[in-house]
Amino acid sequence: MAVQLIMDVIGYSDQYKSLTLVAHDDRPFIGVIMNVHVADTDDLVGRFLSYSDNKTKTGSCSGDSMNYITHANNLAVTKMEVTWVAPEEEIGDVTFRATFMELFDLFWINVKTDLISKLPLSAPVKDKEGDDQTITCTYAKGKSTFQYGINVIEQNYRQSKRGRLTQMTTSYRDGSLYCSFTMPIVMNATDESGRTVTYDLHNPYHVMLAWGRLHEGTDVITKHDELPIQSINKIHFDAVEIHRATALPLITRIHGILMLTAWILFVGVATVVARHYRPMYPAKLVCGTKVWFQIHRFTAITVFIFTAVSFVIIFFKVDGLSDHVGVHSWLGIAVMSCVCLQMIGGLLRPSPDNRVRPVFNYLHWGIGKSAQILADMSFYDCENPSALIGQEVFHKIRKNASKSSEELRHYCISSDS
Question: 250-416, which class in CATH?
Answer without folding.
Answer: mainly alpha
